[in-house]
Specification:
By secondary structure, this protein is an alpha+beta fold. The chain has two domains: 2-193, no CATH class; 205-350, Histidine kinase-like ATPase, C-terminal domain (Heat Shock Protein 90, 2-Layer Sandwich). It is built from eleven helices and seven strands. Strand 4 (270-278) and strand 5 (281-287) form a beta hairpin. Helix 6 runs antiparallel to helix 7 (140-163), helix 7 (140-163) packs antiparallel against helix 8 (172-198) and helix 10 (247-264) runs antiparallel to helix 11 (318-328).
Length: 354
């Protein structure tokens, strides 16, 4: 079996991997990486392979934990990505040379572990970087620049892993590229909304609600797929209904709320987008399946840098900016907790004046 092969040939694999890492031009190998990093990477790979029969989730969890440990020891994300790839290549080469009795399925498993390990390293790198920024008092423009740079760097590293052949075109590493490209798009949308609101340049006008919802459904369906959830859209409107708002700001606020719902809804869950008329106002409701909120946490959601749930990605600015944007158009955002199920966010806006 593959694990037994790695264990029995551990020293030879370490020697060969060190030789390969030593020849690498970039990122330039460090002495610590050669002496202690390579054995540590190999042992972690073997540990991950032992857990494979349990579940795919176990592989991903193990990869993320290993990545966190390596990054906390001072290894760069580039070192993690390249060293995992070098070790995998050496294992494959030696097994072929000695004609080891390793099955095709085991090699597929090895590649899957590598794919998840690289994805876990890049994802953990993003999480640690974002948390360090949020803990500081960096100016908002600086935060935006850092967050954008980090997402671009993560996407580039993952893409290079795919391009070099160390990761498949379709897999966990490819998903890292997709997530970060979506993240870049969200950052830019959020920045545009914030600039318009803070500069006082928000321009209220007649906005066709039906078109707004249709556009949100197209973009939202793709975003939901990235997160492994589904989206349904229902309208209780009769005829054309217009609202008085800045179209760019309102679209950005709606996109932020949908992205927030996708982010916190459990995999395989469902997000609903509904529109209805109450009196002389229009309500847009987004209901997620986040599992509900702890008592007393509703109002905290809209504070700058506040986040909910275990998913700590992002800086927690989406809801804060969404509230500001909707209020600039004469509306309000409310949230209602559904214990044990999720949350319902409501954008409440006035009709366009007749």
């Amino acid at each position: 079996m593959l694990v037994e092969f790695i264990t029995a040939n551990r020293q030879e694999l370490i020697v060969r991997t060190r030789a390969k890492v030593e020849k690498r031009l970039a990122p330039k190998p460090t002495e610590r990486e050669l002496t202690s990093g390579v054995p540590l990477f190999l042992d972690q790979l073997a540990e991950t392979l032992r857990d494979v029969p349990l579940s795919g989730t176990t592989i991903e969890r193990g990869a993320a934990l290993h990545a966190a440990a390596l990054l906390s020891l001072g290894y760069t994300v580039a070192q993690v990505v390249h060293d995992y790839g070098d070790i995998c290549q050496v294992v494959t080469e030696l097994a072929d040379q000695v004609d080891a009795p390793i099955t095709t399925d085991e090699f597929h498993t090895l590649n899957r572990c590598l794919d998840n390990a690289i994805a876990g390293a890049v994802t953990e790198y993003m999480r640690l970087r974002e948390r360090s920024m949020a803990d500081g008092e960096t100016e908002r423009s600086g935060i935006f620049a850092h967050e954008l740079r980090n997402r671009i760097s993560a996407a580039q590293l993952a893409f290079l892993a795919i391009k070099s052949g160390r990761a498949p075109i379709a897999g966990s590493v490819a998903a890292v590229v997709t997530r970060n490209l979506h993240g870049i798009s969200r950052l830019i949308d959020r920045a545009l909304v914030e600039v318009r609101v803070d500069s006082g340049s928000a321009l209220r006008q007649r906005v066709h609600l039906r078109q707004l919802i249709e556009d949100a459904e197209v973009d939202g369906t793709m975003e939901a797929g990235v997160h492994g959830v589904s989206l349904s859209v229902a309208s209780l409107l009769e005829g054309e209904v217009d609202v008085d708002a800045d179209p760019q700001v309102l679209a950005g606020a709606l996109a932020n709320l949908l992205q927030n719902a996708f982010k916190f809804t459990h995999a395989g869950g469902h997000v609903s987008l509904r529109t209805l008329v109450t009196g002389e106002r229009v309500q847009i409701e987004i209901e997620d399946q986040c599992g509900g909120l702890p008592p007393g946490k509703v109002e905290e959601l809209f504070g700058a840098f506040q986040q909910r749930g275990a998913n700590r990605s992002g800086l927690g600015l989406g809801l804060f900016i969404s509230r500001k944007g909707v209020e600039s158009s004469g509306g309000v955002i409310r949230v209602r907790d559904v214990p044990g199920s999720g949350c319902i966010f409501t954008i409440d806006l006035p009709f366009y004046p007749v």
